[in-house]
Amino acid sequence: MSWDSEYDIICVGSGVGGLSAALTGAQQGASVLVLDKFHLIGGVSALSSGQLWPGPTHLSKAEGIEDNDSDAQAYINHLSQGFSDPDLRESYLAQCRGAIKYFTDTIGLELQVIKDLPDYYYPAVKGSAPQGRFLEIKPFPATKLPGEWASKILTSPYGDGFSYVTGNEFVSMQLKGGEHVGTVLQRHVKADERTSGAGLAAAQVYAALQRGVKIQPSTEVVDLVVEGGRITGVIARDASSSSTKRIRARLGVLLATGGYDLQPNMVRGFDNLINAGNMTIPTITGDHLTLAAKVGAVPYPAHPSALTAIFVGYQIPGEIIYGKPTWRLLLPGAPHSFIVNSRGNRFANDSFYPDVSAKAGRYDGQEQGLVNWPAWLVFDHNFVEKYNLLPAYPGQPLPQGIAVSSDTLRGLAEVAEIDADGLLSTAERFNGFCKTGVDEDFGRGSLPWGTIMTGDYSLPHPSFAELAKAPFYAVKLHRVTVGVPTAGLPTNGDGSVISAAGHVVPGLYATGNSAAYRDWGAGYNSGVANMRGMLYGYKASLHMVKEAGL
Ligand SMILES: Cc1cc2nc3c(=O)[nH]c(=O)nc-3n(C[C@H](O)[C@H](O)[C@H](O)COP(=O)(O)OP(=O)(O)OC[C@H]3O[C@@H](n4cnc5c(N)ncnc54)[C@H](O)[C@@H]3O)c2cc1C
To answer: What does the entry give for GO biological process (predicted)?
Structure first.
């Protein structure tokens, strides 16, 4: 076997999963190569909010936040709904705590607790906590990166707000009257201090370069090399020359290629979505599934697709990002707005996206159809003036072509093709709830996470204000995937890939969204996707190094 080059560990993909494995491997003395087929580094992770959900850690303890594993475990157990592997589920908290300690104390990542941010399902689910379990990177000055690296790492193409405001700054503005995020944003942009997923990616790349990791964008792994049943390397194609190289991985290959958002057959088959939009980069094409098929590993749907973290959102006609049409996710719940189905009825707690998403996908046995889909975000002109829909800021015209409008709700129902009587009676009932701040139908405003994200704390009831000011608008919603899939490769606690026959595939590992959510199960809490990437990237490299006796 002849090789063009040799490393100990090859990480395929440069999101949080690939970079966490690279950092761990290099720290343990291995030579590491990270390959990414996109021309920028960081994956979907870098355009995410960058939240991590490890449960209680040394960081929450240092903040004096009271929490315990027994509560956090009860929360995880409930969300799993019996779908996760009990061993993986029960070791998640301790393993995450170890991984976070390693990345802060040994690698030097500066993580912080997002204060006052409750678990998604607090206080509805037993064991949920009012704060302390979310972490994020502190603002990272990209000026620290050597050479051209600052321009080679992804920041969000959906607006600077995603990459230059911390969760702490946002929550503090919402709950404590802290500095407005617009001011914070300008300061961070000026200093190129990256936050959220972009900050995490920049900090990880910085630490990886310091440890001699070789990071190569625009290089696609097109095949795995198998010798005697063991994965010993990859075939990689250079985007600029289309030539391929055989690269040896002495200890192992880690698949960290994310989900399969840009592969419509997989989205339809595994996520049960037809014509879904997505908010990821164009290279999230399920390559881990096709690559690992060669060695007998088959995709494992870890939980019901109805509970996958799929958002609702909207599409701006003609908006192209990275050469492809794109969608924008909607965090619903701003005052002066609600969400209805074609009967004009609200159907969910529309201040909390997981409830909207799960119920939008509800299949009705009696009607043999999706009773709540299509759905519309309906709002009045107050909404446009005070909150609006990105990329439009408050008071600006709505992005062109996304909404229909009318001076009356009845007229709006007609142009949107929503049942008019249904919409009028929904608006009347909703406006009534706005007086009391109590949604007697769907508990809008009852989950603080949702209220913090979109509520207006200058109002007596932050998630409520009437639809009263003409014109009225309706935006037809889309289902939007964000790189969090239903299916992935089955792996064990070391991140080793398990074949359909139930054997570990020697030398092959997977992490992040490439690894099935067997540890977690059904329900989702923000921060779990990024945390799993970090955790099993770390575990995989530790395992490779240990096996090799390095
Ligand atoms: C707007 C938004 C906000 C989000 N916020 C959060 C959050 O706060 N917390 C959270 O936990 N999750 C969040 N998510 C989801 C989360 O970002 C993803 O689930 C996570 O980033 C996946 O990480 P990963 O390492 O598995 O893969 P990714 O970060 O998706 O990286 C995969 C990489 O693999 C590369 N690749 C693919 N195929 C190949 C190949 N054949 N050869 C070489 N390279 C390849 C891709 O180019 C890509 O760079 C958010 C997502 C979005 C869109």
So the answer is: steroid metabolic process
